[in-house]
Specification:
The chain is α+β, with helices and mostly antiparallel strands and 216 residues long. The chain contains 7 helices and 7 strands. The chain is globular. InterPro entries: Papain-like_cys_pep_sf (IPR038765), Transglutaminase-like (IPR002931). It holds the Pfam family Transglut_core.
C-alpha cells in the first residue's frame, strides 16, 4: 500500500499540541531516559520508544483498566490506554527527539464462526462489530519511506514488532471481511478518535463511542 502524506512539509509531523504534548515534563523525562538507555542514533531510539510503549503501557482492554486516557503525558503517567492513546504516547516520544511521526488507521472487523444458517455461510463471517484501530508511521533519517508501527501491545495471537522494511503490525487487514488500511498519514490524531476518548467517562462507555469508519 502506498502511504499518502497529508502534508508535504515534514514539520507538520513534529508538532506538539494538547494531545501529543511532547513538551510536557513527563514526556521529556521519559524520552531522556530512553535516549540514555538506547545510545546514539535515531533508529535505536525509535525502537526503544516503540518497545517501551508497546510493552510497559498495557492496553486497557487487556489489563481491565476502566480509565480512559488520551493525552500523551497522561498515558505515560498512568501506564494505561487503548490503541489511540498508546499511539499518542509513542508519537510524542518520537517527536520529542525530532523524528517525524504520523497517525495511521485501519478499519477492523470482529470475526465469528457461524453455521449454514448465517447469511455468510459456514465458517468465518464478518458479522461482528467494526472499529477503527490506530497506529503510527515514522520517517527515520536516511530513509525515503515511512514505516508503520503498531504499539497496541502483544498478547496471544498478536505479535507486533519494530520493523522498517517488512510490516509487523498487530492486525494485518483482511479485505475479504471488509477490513481497510487507510493510506493517509495524518499529522494530527483523527478528530473522531480523539472525541471518542475525551467524551467517554470510562472504557465501557468508550466501546460504544468508538468510530466504526473514518470519513473519506
Amino acid at each position: 500500500m502506498e502511504l499518502i502524506q497529508e502534508h508535504a512539509d515534514l514539520s507538520a509531523y513534529l508538532v506538539a499540541d494538547d494531545v501529543v504534548d511532547h513538551d510536557h515534563p513527563t514526556v521529556r523525562e521519559t524520552a531522556a531516559a530512553l535516549r540514555a538507555a538506547a545510545g546514539a542514533g535515531a533508529h535505536a531510539y525509535a525502537e526503544a520508544a516503540f518497545e517501551f510503549v508497546r510493552d510497559t503501557v498495557p492496553h486497557s482492554a487487556d489489563s481491565g483498566d476502566l480509565r480512559v486516557s488520551w493525552r500523551a503525558s497522561d498515558v505515560l503517567a498512568t501506564r494505561n490506554g487503548i490503541c489511540y492513546a498508546k499511539s499518542h504516547a509513542l508519537a510524542a516520544l518520537l517527536r520529542a527527539e525530532g523524528i517525524p511521526t504520523a497517525f495511521c488507521y485501519q478499519r477492523l472487523v470482529d470475526e465469528h464462526e457461524c453455521g449454514d444458517s448465517c447469511s455468510g455461510g459456514a465458517g468465518a463471517c464478518p458479522g461482528g462489530p467494526a472499529a477503527v484501530h490506530g497506529l503510527v508511521a515514522v520517517l527515520l533519517p536516511g530513509r525515503d519511506a515511512w514505516a508503520r508501527l503498531d504499539p497496541r501491545g502483544n498478547k496471544p495471537g498478536v505479535d507486533a514488532r519494530f520493523s522498517l522494511d517488512e510490516e509487523r503490525l498487530a492486525f494485518p487487514v483482511r479485505p475479504e471481511l471488509g477490513e481497510v488500511d487507510y493510506p493517509v498519514l495524518h499529522a494530527d490524531p483523527h478528530p473522531p478518535t480523539v472525541r471518542a476518548l475525551r467524551n467517554s467517562a470510562d472504557r465501557l462507555a468508550l466501546w460504544a463511542n468508538l468510530p466504526t469508519a473514518l470519513p473519506a
